[in-house]
Amino acid sequence: MKAYENNLDVFESIFKRSVKHQYVHEPFEPNKALVIGDVDNLAKLNAFIGEYSADCQSFQYNDSFSWDELKSKIDEWQPDLILIQRQLGIPNKDLIFSVGPILETITQVCKMPVLVLPDELDNFVIDSVGIGFDHQIDNSLLINKALLLKNKLKHITLIHVEDESIFKYYMGAIEKIPGINTEFAETNIKETILELSADFFNGVADKLNNDKLKTTIHCEFGEIVSCYEKLIKEHNIDLLVFEAEDDSKMAMHSLGHSLTIQFPNVATLLV
Amino acid sequence: MILLNSIHTDVSMGVTFLFLGLLVLMVLALALEEKIHAHKSVITGVAAVFALILGQATGIFSSIDSHGSHMPFFVKFIDWGVIAIILGSSIFIDITSKSGIFSWLAIKLTKMTKGDPFKLLIYYSIMTVVFSALLNNVTAMLIIGSLTVVSLSNLKKLSLLLGFLICEGLLTNIGGLLTLISSVPNIIVGNTAGISFASFFVISAPYVLVATTGTIFLAGKLFKISPLKTDQEKADAALLITNFDENAGVESKSFFKLGWFVFISFILVLAMTDLIPYIQDLGIGFVAMAFGILMMIKIKNKTETTYKAIDWDLLFFFAFLFVVIGVMEYAQVLHLIGGGVVQLIDLGDTAGPIALLWASSIASSVTDNIPLAAMLAKTMGNLPEFAQNFWWAVIYGANLGGNITPIGSASTVVAVTIIAKNNLKLSFVGFIVKAVPFAFFQLVLASGYVYLIGLLN
Q1: Which of A23, A141, A175, A248 could disulfide-pair with A204, CB 3.0 to 4.6 Å?
Q2: Whole-complex ipTM
């Protein structure tokens, strides 16, 4: 490598570091909501969403369910929010590692946010929301959509948990490269990754605190499920908000899908 | 008819042509540097080794008296003044850039454009010229080129990147004409011609101003870089450009302030070198080294990073090149080349400088302009009195020739590297097709300007 190529890299790093993505606030309202559930749950789901949306329609699931029929309804009515019962379409509710084929298909096919509520809805109120970010840190849309259910909202936790095991795997490769100082790489990569989310989150917090919403920032390396578990308890999180699709658009591989399965007692909004 | 003065040795024409062959091989190897995968210093180093052995074998050094000197005679061929300027400036610029002043200024100006592509073109072009003039062409291209990639990417205007980078690459060679230390050919030719830092600036500034303005407008037209039209476009761009934080590259406020203070002092001292007692006798090389060493106090226990950043390839390239040129002088090769230069000088004070300017620009477009400048400076230094604008013809030709091909100057090589790094397709011929209108405009303008310098003198 020539001296100038090394310097080019130095300057590119400085300028890339100087770009701090800012939160762009754009309000969304759940004016129209579509509720999908079976005969046992439809009424309580409707009752819940009635508090947030003025115009609700229902789609009742039964044995003669037709996906085409549901898809046509969604396409024609274009709801701002879809509320769907967890594990809808699964005959055996013991199959706990599936959120249900209808929910899985809707999140891949439809562009509108999909809300999944816990089974127990008595006295359920959304006043603490956790927004989980994957690798697209500067995701203003995720925050704006999370604010769809802001009626009784008091507290927002912005969460970025970077998978420590994947990081260790990459560090294992770095350790074997003589030209890279392992300790320097480990410290700097960790710091830079966390700084990226912290910078964006601080901007979001400034805006949301002005709107009287208490905002907490949480950026760390760790084991994803246990970190979220700890945060749910710590901040009494009622609703987790995630991207519905992962970075590479692989079906059902997003952070949101895994954690929707993992935490059945917490509501999830998949955007 | 001008008669040549040079070192007089009894060298046969055959020996002179043998050394000329070696020189041509070296120049060809330098032109094909990328193809043969050899760094410049290796090419000139090998040429120096062979030239010295061949010189001893043919007896061309017989007139050199080395008695009483511990220093090998060929070490004296090296122009240590030039080496001191380049080494001192490299150290100084490397440490000063760590203070964040250049990135701070570049980002501050980027934000002032509010994301308008045409304003960005104007601001980046001016910055390229100023940075090339005050730092060096390569550093200027590195700073502005990398900023352009990041800002156009942030503004989602990467389709304009190629035009920006070509324009900036070409402007580094215009900015390289502004001061005596802006480019290596200036340093070499200016030192030989005895042009001071201040008078170099006064003579060259008007040309740089007109050439820069013309180049910007030509780039806007040819690369279709135009101002934003609708209010929505302007609002979106203004929002995206606020993402930049000029303080991101500033790690210490005290170092940042020191960086500004020392950098401005450096420029002022350089400009007034001829007026400051003691300093005037020590020269620009001393000023560059002194400021470089003083800045090292700031990193006194971390000097290894700066030593690592120094372009040792460039410094060894110079040292070996000077040895080769020294040998060529004894082999009467410079006398031979001088004959060609004399023919150009004999064309008169009007046609002569213009012919020399175009000849040097064409020569420097296909090979490194540094050996060309060094060779011509040494050759012309041996000639008797001639009009001052011949020196300027070499300076303008050697610098502007770099704008004709992608290998014509170190900064255009950097521009092409950035272009390739961003997966933009640009062949050797493709670069020439895009660059020739600019080079032609700049050379025609320079021809008129060199003629004007002749008239005013």
Answers
A1: A23
A2: 0.74
Average pLDDT of B26-32? Answer: 84
The answer to whether A18 contacts B39, with C-beta atoms less than 8 Å apart, is no
What is the dotted CATH code of the domain comprising A125-271?
Answer: 3.40.50.620
| CATH T-level fold of A31-117 | Rossmann fold (3.40.50)
Q: How many CB pairs under 8 A join A and B?
A: 74
pLDDT at B298: 85
Report angle CA B81, B83, B89 to the nearest 5 degrees: 100
Sheet holding A81-84, edge to edge: A55-61, A32-38, A81-84, A114-116, A267-270, A239-242, A128-132, A155-163, A214-222
Whose tokens are 């610098």? That residue is B399
Contact A11 B417 (CB under 8 A): no
Contact A11, B103 (CB under 8 A): yes
Q: Choosing among A5, A10, A15, A206, which should be mutated to test the B contact, i.e. which has the most B CBs within 10 A? A: A15
Nearest chain B alpha carbon to A23: B243
Mean pLDDT over residues A113-138, rounded? 89
Structural domain contains residue B279: no
Where along chain A do the CATH 3.40.50.620 domains lie?
A: 125-271
Model confidence at A186: pLDDT above 50: yes
DSSP letter for A3, please: H
Residue B181 is assigned to a structural domain of this protein: yes
Nearest residue in B to A22, CA atom: B243
pLDDT tens digits for range A149-159: 887 889 999 99
Whole-number pLDDT of residue B288 = 87
- How many folded domains does chain B comprise? 1
Per-residue pLDDT band for B2 (boundaries 50, 70, 90) equals very low
A11 vs B142, B151, B154: nearest CB: B142
